[in-house]
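Researcher: Please translate sequence to structure tokens.
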Amino acid sequence: MEKRSRIRTVYLYLFSLIGLVLITIGSVGFINLGLRAFVFTKADEYQRTINKQPPYPTVAVEKYQALPAEQKNQKKVTLVLSEQEKTDLDNWFIAYKNWKQEQNQIDYVTSQRQEDAAINLALIIVGVPLYFYHWRTIKKENIT
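Model: Translation complete:
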């Protein structure tokens, strides 16, 4: 009977601990998400713009690759582009310049600091009440 009682006790404590860990990790994740969305709004700025980079113009690359090897080794290569290809290249260049301007406006140090601050503050917000609650419970049990 006592062996079964110990196994049950270990089981209960173990799964209580696992549940506590899962709740803590989930809570930290949600708090971190909220802090990034409402307090540290620049924390994800880099991720928003990295996917906006315009694709490279493939027309010039394709024409360059089609050149014979001896022409590729020259310092200056002349490619003949159609009007549509020129327009596509001009549009790409404008999109690239706009993307580059957006990149220059981002302060990556501030963005990274706010990202770190959001994670750390979320851990503190969850950890402090968790610690004090359990410490108070231990003290109550030791007094009685």
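Researcher: Any highlights?
Model: The chain has one domain: 2-53+80-143.
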